[in-house]
Write a structure and sequence with these properties.
Helix 2 runs parallel beside helix 7. This protein has 12 helices and 12 strands. The protein is globular, with a radius of gyration of 22 Å. Helices cover 43% and strands 13% of the residues. It has 393 residues and is α/β, with parallel strands linked by helices. It starts with a strand and ends with a helix. Bound molecules: pyridoxal-5'-phosphate. Pyridoxal-5'-phosphate (PLP) binds next to helix 3.
C-alpha cells in the first residue's frame, strides 16, 4: 500500500486544478502583456483569478502580487520593506521557528547592518506576546511571525500580534504558507500588512504563489525588469499557474469545513492508535492549537532519519522536520527550540494528512509503525549492551 502523509511538504494537485490550467498552455498561451487577442484572453483569466484570491483572504485585487511561491514572497516581504528603512530604522523581530525562507533572509539582513531579534517558542510551540512587546524598541519597523508552523502545525495568535504591531506603528508580515488548506484567513480582521502564500501546499501547482501587500504600503522590488504586477514584480505572467492557484484556493475554501472534519478524524484515529500501542512517545507542541492536518511525534530512542527510511520501504511517506531541513543531516531546529532537547529533535517525525487519505491507510501505517519502532528499539538496546560491556556479543 502507498500512503502519502507528507502534505506539509507538498500536496497532490486536484484533477480539476490540472484541467483548469490546460487551456492556458495550449490555446490561450499568449503573453498577457501583449495587446493582441492571444494575450487579452489571458489577461481576463489573470484578472478573474486575482479577484477571486483577494476575496478569499478578505483583501482587494490590487493588494495581490503573484510570485513564484512562498520562498520568493518571504524574501520579498522582508527585504523589500527593509530597503525602504535603510538610514531610518534598523530593527526586525521574527522567531526561531520560521521557515528558512524567512530565517535566511533575516540573516542576510543582519549581515547588511540590520538588527534581528529571534523570539523563542515555548513547549506548546507558541511565541510569548509579552516577549514580543518587550522586544519592540524605537528602531523596530517590522515583525514577521508565521501563521502556522510547518513542523508542528501550531497556529500563532496572528490577530493579537497584528494588534500589537499596529499600536506601535510597526509593519506585520506573516508567512501563511501552511495555513491553507486547513485554516481560513482574513487579512483585515487579523491586522496583516503583508502575507505570503504558496499554491502547492493547497493542491495547486508548484512554482506559483502570491504576496499580499496592504494598500498604501510601498516596498522595494527584488527583481528588475518589465512592468508586470504594477511594476512591482517583473517577469512574464505565469497565466496557467495563476489560474490553477485560484481554482485550488476556491476549492480549498469551499470544501474546508467538510475536509477538516474528515482530516481531523483521521488524525485523531492516528494519534490514539500511536499512544495506545507505542510506549515512550509524545506529541510536540499543543495539538489543540494546531491545524487538523499536522502532528509531530517524538519516538524516544529512535533516530527519525532511520524511521523515515524504514517507513519509505513500506510505501509510507513522512518527514523528519521540514523538507528543506530533511535533505541535510541536521535535525529539526523547531523541535529543538520547543523541547530544548537535541535528542527529542533527532527522534521526531512529522505526519501530515490531507483530504485524499483514507481510514484503512491509517490502519496500515499504524501496523508498520509499531513493527518499525519495536525493531529499532531492540537494535538500540543491543548496541547499549555492546557498548557498556565493551565487547561484541
Ligand atoms: C513550503 C513553505 C515555504 C516555501 O514555499 P515554496 O512555495 O515551496 O517556496 C515557506 N514557508 C513555509 C511555512 C512553508 O511551509
Amino acid at each position: 500500500m502507498n500512503v502519502y502523509l507528507d502534505n506539509a511538504a507538498t500536496t497532490k494537485m486536484d484533477k480539476e486544478v490540472v484541467e483548469s490550467m490546460l487551456p492556458y498552455f495550449t490555446d490561450i498561451f499568449g503573453n498577457v502583456s501583449s495587446v493582441h487577442t492571444f494575450g487579452r484572453k489571458g489577461i481576463e483569466a489573470v484578472d478573474k483569478a486575482r479577484k477571486e484570491i483577494a476575496l478569499l483572504i478578505g483583501g482587494s485585487s490590487n493588494e495581490i502580487y503573484f510570485t513564484s511561491g512562498g520562498t520568493e514572497s518571504d524574501n520579498w516581504a522582508l527585504e523589500g520593506v527593509s530597503r525602504k528603512f535603510i538610514g531610518k530604522k534598523k530593527h526586525i523581530i521574527t522567531t526561531v521557528m520560521e521557515h528558512p525562507a524567512v530565517i535566511n533572509t533575516a540573516k542576510v539582513l543582519e549581515n547588511n547592518g540590520f538588527e534581528v531579534t529571534y523570539l523563542n517558542i515555548d513547549k506548546n510551540g507558541l511565541i510569548n506576546l509579552d516577549e514580543l512587546k518587550s522586544a519592540i524598541n524605537e528602531q523596530t519597523f517590522l515583525v514577521s511571525v508565521m501563521m502556522v508552523n510547518n513542523e508542528t502545525g501550531v497556529i500563532q495568535p496572528i490577530k493579537e500580534i497584528g494588534e500589537i504591531c499596529r499600536k506601535n506603528g510597526i509593519l506585520f508580515h506573516t508567512d501563511a504558507v501552511q495555513a491553507f488548506p486547513y485554516r481560513k484567513i482574513n487579512v483585515v480582521d487579523e491586522n496583516i500588512d503583508m502575507m505570503s502564500c504558496s499554491a502547492h501546499k493547497f493542491h495547486g501547482p508548484k512554482g506559483i504563489g502570491f504576496l499580499y501587500i496592504k494598500n498604501g504600503l510601498i516596498i522595494d522590488n527584488l527583481l528588475n525588469g518589465g512592468h508586470q504586477e504594477r511594476g512591482m514584480r517583473p517577469g512574464t505572467t505565469n497565466t496557467a499557474g495563476i489560474v490553477g492557484m485560484a481554482k485550488a484556493l476556491n476549492t480549498t475554501v469551499a470544501e474546508m469545513e467538510k475536509n477538516n472534519e474528515k482530516i481531523l478524524n483521521l488524525r485523531e484515529k492516528f494519534i490514539k492508535s500511536v499512544i495506545d500501542n507505542i510506549p515512550n512517545c509524545h506529541i510536540n507542541g499543543d495539538i489543540d492549537k494546531a491545524v487538523c492536518g499536522i502532528v509531530n511525534i517524538c519516538f524516544e530512542n529512535i533516530k527519525s532519519a532511520s524511521m523515515v527510511n524504514a517507513l519509505d520501504l513500506e510505501g509510507i511517506a513522512v518527514s523528519a522536520g521540514s523538507a528543506c531541513v530533511a535533505g541535510s543531516v541536521k535535525s529539526s531546529y523547531v523541535i529543538k527550540a520547543l523541547s530544548g532537547s537535541d535528542s527529542d529533535a533527532e527522534s521526531s517525525v512529522r505526519f501530515s494528512f490531507d483530504k485524499y487519505n483514507m481510514p484503512n491507510q491509517i490502519d496500515y501505517v499504524i501496523e508498520k509503525l509499531c513493527e518499525i519502532v519495536k525493531n529499532m528499539r531492540k537494535t538500540t538496546n543491543l548496541f547499549k549492551i555492546i557498548n557498556t560491556e565493551g565487547k561484541f556479543i
